[in-house]
């Protein structure tokens, strides 16, 4: 591993995984077969050869070939050595010298929303009538009859150009609080959406658009009074145009501050998505993962129903990526009562971690800092509700304790892994303080506390993250996206501690990578790991700015960035003994890439494509 204590950890982990497999064997009816049970003389089911295999393993950094039996790697070595494993039924993939890496493991995916955005409506880059009509027509043809089309977030990139600063769009005109952005009209879609209700919104939620059917369901027509707190735009004949306006006072930058009366009006009228639609969305998101080489991921916010969909699709043989599902910290008690702790589940669906949020985000300047924002001297950002109430600690009458800390202490005691969102430097600092108290009270343990985002940290906290064996659950593409305005919001000195991957790594923290897909209304975070590796290695925007990289001293090497996206994320999930590197005995989760990341110009990494993705020995994606 990346640090000296790896071996000690690994031994302990063997024991833990053995226990987990016992549980898995019960769940799956005893289908777990120990690796050593098979004879080495049997031919393999799959051989990948003539490859540049980047193993991320300790002993053999590179190899030419891999042999796989069922779902497990049984050989890593030379192309000639692999020939012994080729039998009459063996599938042989000739990689033609291409790079093969372990399947990517995304540490942070909002899975249900990713599926919704991929399968449903995405208008982020739309700001013309033709595109608007076309996108809605596509979804209309995909969706079951009568299902509502919602979401969209049109004109997002009209304001925030993707990969570049759109200065003009960021100037808010105080005389025109709704801005001069694209406005849809019922003429654009009513012709083909007769029986289909459509309610879509602009990215800033100040403006919504409803088609004729949705207006009818809401009881809005010519001559009807405007609903409470909503302005209905009408044409010269008094006919609603479809545009519905929320009240806006002055220049509002943040969606948090918009009074979303339209959403409140329509909320009770829109039924939840059907099971069939959720299944479609799940399959669509997995298809995307396969196309970009993601073979494992942490699902951070999907509703509980998603777990049952995972189960169903797995039983139907349709699951193509392995998941670790995290319920909210508040749920720790029911988890503990069911015996769910670190390791629970199997190599496809696993539990054992909980998640919490303690501050806001950089995107709308709500992340919590020790000092006020540079561009807004009245604000230091916010704490989330879970920090309150702040009460006397039951352990020590002189100590005050947040609700978060009480829950965290108890969940930790129950053997559950803690993962907590922290963006601003004070949020990260608070968590380091809290972790020190948890260690003092509950004792030293292999707890792998996941500092989610670890976005802006002080020098002291970067050092502490190493001392406390913290996992920095980072999403490097955020750096490419945020560097465009970071310094204007928090200044040069604090920006030095933003996405400080190099210093976190050197301090001894385990730096793990992921995507944070699908992103916010102002930024799209794609599942593609190449964008994250590109960001970590170059520290540039998608358009290649600035020359030489932003705080280039924080760059990682390509090898480190790959490890962060594979082995280190497996470690973050207590799964480094079965995933994360190409070694005998591990799961055969592999990706063939179009180019060799180790030898190419790093500026080109963002455009590298996946040629094939293999999960558990099964080819789940092939280019062309
Ligand atoms: Zn997130």
List the SSEs and their pairings.
Elements (H helix, E strand, L loop, with lengths): L5 H22 L18 E4 L2 E3 L7 E2 L1 E5 L2 E6 L1 H5 L7 E4 L4 E4 L1 E6 L1 H9 L9 H14 L6 E6 L1 H4 L7 H4 L27 E5 L4 E4 L1 H6 L13 E4 L5 E6 L15 H6 L8 H18 L1 E6 L5 H11 L6 E4 L6 H6 L11 E2 L2 E5 L32 E3 L7 E3 H11 L3 E5 L3 H18 L7 E3 L6 H9 L3 E4 L2 H6 L3 H10 L5 H7 L2 E4 L15 H10 L19 H8 L1 H6 L17 E4 L16 E6 L2 E5 L2
Parallel strand pairs: 1-6, 2-7, 8-14, 9-10, 14-15, 15-16, 17-20, 20-21, 21-22, 22-23
Antiparallel strand pairs: 1-4, 2-3, 4-5, 7-24, 10-11, 11-13, 12-13, 18-19, 24-25, 25-26
This protein binds zinc ion (ZN).
Zinc ion binds next to loops.
Number of DSSP helical runs: 20
Mean pLDDT: 90
Report the end-to-end length measured between terminal Cα atoms.
36 Å
Contiguous low-pLDDT stretches (5 residues minimum) are 1-39, 163-172
The beta-strand count equals 26
Helix content: 25-40%
Sketch the major β-sheet.
Answer: 6 strands, mixed
Compact overview of the structure:
The protein has 624 residues and is α/β, with parallel strands linked by helices.
């Amino acid at each position: 591993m990346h640090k000296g204590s790896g071996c000690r950890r690994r031994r302990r982990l063997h024991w833990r995984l053995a226990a987990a497999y016992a549980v898995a064997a019960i769940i799956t009816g005893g289908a777990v077969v120990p690796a050593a049970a098979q004879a080495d003389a049997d031919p393999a089911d799959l051989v990948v050869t003539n490859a540049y295999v980047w193993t991320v393993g300790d002993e053999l950094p590179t190899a030419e070939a891999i042999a796989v039996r069922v779902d497990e790697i049984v050989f890593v070595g030379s192309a000639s050595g692999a020939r012994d494993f080729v039998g009459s039924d063996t599938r042989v993939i000739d990689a033609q010298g291409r790079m093969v890496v372990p399947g990517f493991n995304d540490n942070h995916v909002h899975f249900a929303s990713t599926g919704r955005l991929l399968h449903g409506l995405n208008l982020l880059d739309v700001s013309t009538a033709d595109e608007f009509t076309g996108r809605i027509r596509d979804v209309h043809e995909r969706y079951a009859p009568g299902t509502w089309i919602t979401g969209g977030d049109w004109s997002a990139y009209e304001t925030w150009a993707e990969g570049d600063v759109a200065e003009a769009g960021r100037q808010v005109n105080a005389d025109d609080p709704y801005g001069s952005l694209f406005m849809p009209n019922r003429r654009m879609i009513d012709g083909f959406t007769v029986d289909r209700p459509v309610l879509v919104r602009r990215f800033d939620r100040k403006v919504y658009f409803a088609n004729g059917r949705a207006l009818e369901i809401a009881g809005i027509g010519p001559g009807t009074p405007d609903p409470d707190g909503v302005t209905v735009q009408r044409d010269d004949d008094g006919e609603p145009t479809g545009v519905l306006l929320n009240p806006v006072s002055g220049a509002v930058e943040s969606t948090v501050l918009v009074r979303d009366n339209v959403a409140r009006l329509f909320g009770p009228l829109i039924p939840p998505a059907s099971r069939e639609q959720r299944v479609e969305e799940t399959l669509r998101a997995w298809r995307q993962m396969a196309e970009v080489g993601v073979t494992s991921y942490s699902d951070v916010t999907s509703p509980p129903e998603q777990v049952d969909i995972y189960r169903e699709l797995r039983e139907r043989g349709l699951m193509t990526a392995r998941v670790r599902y995290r319920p909210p910290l508040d749920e720790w008690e029911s988890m503990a009562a069911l015996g769910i702790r670190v390791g629970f589940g199997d190599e496809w669906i696993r539990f054992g971690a909980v998640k919490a949020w303690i501050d806001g985000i950089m995107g709308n300047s709500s992340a919590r800092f020790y000092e006020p924002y540079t561009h807004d001297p009245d604000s230091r950002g916010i704490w989330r509700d879970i920090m309150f109430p702040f009460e006397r600690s039951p352990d020590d009458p002189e100590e005050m304790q947040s609700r978060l800390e009480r829950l965290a202490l108890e969940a930790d005691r129950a053997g559950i892994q803690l993962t907590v969102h922290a963006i601003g430097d004070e949020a990260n600092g608070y968590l380091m303080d809290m972790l020190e108290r948890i260690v003092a009270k509950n004792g030293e343990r292999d707890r792998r506390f996941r500092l989610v985002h670890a976005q802006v940290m002080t020098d002291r906290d970067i050092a502490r993250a190493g001392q406390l064996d913290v996992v920095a659950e980072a999403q490097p593409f955020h750096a490419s996206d945020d560097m465009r305005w970071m310094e204007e919001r928090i200044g040069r000195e604090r920006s030095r501690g933003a996405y400080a991957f190099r210093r976190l790594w050197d301090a001894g923290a385990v730096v793990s990578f992921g995507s944070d897909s699908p992103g916010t209304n102002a930024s799209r975070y794609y599942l593609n790991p190449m964008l994250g590796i590109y960001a970590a290695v170059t520290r540039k925007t998608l358009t290649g700015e600035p020359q030489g990289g932003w705080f280039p001293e924080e760059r990682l090497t390509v090898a480190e960035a790959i490890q962060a996206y594979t082995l280190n994320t497996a470690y973050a999930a207590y799964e480094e003994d079965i995933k994360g590197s190409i070694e005998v005995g591990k799961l055969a989760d592999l990706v063939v890439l179009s180019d060799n990341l180790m030898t190419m110009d790093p500026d080109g990494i963002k455009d590298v494509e996946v040629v094939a993705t293999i999960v558990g020995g099964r080819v789940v994606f092939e280019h062309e």
